[in-house]
Amino acid sequence: MKTFYIIGFMGSGKTTIGMALARTLSIDFVDTDELIKIKTGKDIKDIFASEGEQAFREYERDVLLHTPARHCIVATGGGIVERMDNRQWLADKRVVYLQASWESIAQRLKEDQSRPIWADQTRDKQALLESRLSKYLEIASYTINTEQLSPQKIVDQIISFSSFNYE
Ligand SMILES: Nc1ncnc2c1ncn2[C@@H]1O[C@H](COP(=O)(O)OP(=O)(O)OP(=O)(O)O)[C@@H](O)[C@H]1O
Ligand SMILES: O=C(O)C1=C[C@@H](O)[C@@H](O)[C@H](O)C1
Ligand SMILES: [Mg+2]
Questions:
Q1: Which of 12, 35, 103, 133 could be stapled to 63 by a disulfide with Cβ–Cβ 3.0 to 4.6 Å?
Q2: Cβ(73)–Cβ(21) below 8 Å
Q3: What is the value of ipTM here, to two decimals?
């Protein structure tokens, strides 16, 4: 089975659904945000604060390129589509886009302080979501509107869409 990449904005459920999907299929799960934490020994917030977003994007690019080509579910960071070279690299992969409205995302992340861009009062997150929409759609093999769906239903949809024929 070729590796599946899960993309979408912060709070769209990439980590939650990716973990559940991998567990259901009994295959490995990796999360690019976690790989960056392991690689640097730092929290994402610390990387943004001490090295800046561009340095974070370089780490993100590097870990993305080293993800296994087969038998794995990869949850990406919400900003993975910011770089054109990442979009080009993902374009011929199996990519599931988890879509969620601004209202749902804001509701899901209302207490969250761990995501530096989300916590940054100077950033317009709604405009960021709008600017990324076309980038997610550009590389998605399959798009799921997650609005009214539980994580388990989303996992079921991904499995039925892909049929996981292990080629
Ligand atoms: N389908 C869903 N319905 C309701 N809540 C959800 C759903 N999917 C995820 N959530 C909740 O939204 C929050 C964010 O989910 P998660 O961490 O999986 O997002 P993410 O896409 O990985 O975000 P990031 O890009 O920042 O890593 C969690 O509290 C999770 O339980
Ligand atoms: O949307 C983004 O740019 C981000 C999403 C998170 O997954 C992390 O990768 C980081 O907080 C940046
Ligand atoms: Mg995540």
A1: 35
A2: yes
A3: 0.98
**Cα 31 to averaged position of ligand 3 atoms, centre (Å):** 7
pLDDT (0 to 100) of residue 161: 85
CA of 114 to the centre of ligand 3 (A): 11
Every domain of the chain and the residues it spans: 4-162
Compute the C-alpha angle 109/49/32, nearest 5°: 60
CA-to-CA separations, 7 to 11, 51, 112, in angstroms, rounded = 11, 24, 19
Q: Which fold has domain 4-162?
A: Rossmann fold (3.40.50)
Residue 141 neighbours by CB under 8 Å, 6+ apart: 93, 94, 95, 96
pLDDT averaged per 10 residues in sequence order, the chain, 167 residues: 96 98 97 98 97 98 97 98 98 97 97 94 97 98 96 95 64
pLDDT at 148: 93
Residue 24 marked in a binding site? no
Q: Which residues pair with 156 in a beta bridge?
A: none
The amino acid occupying position 20 is A
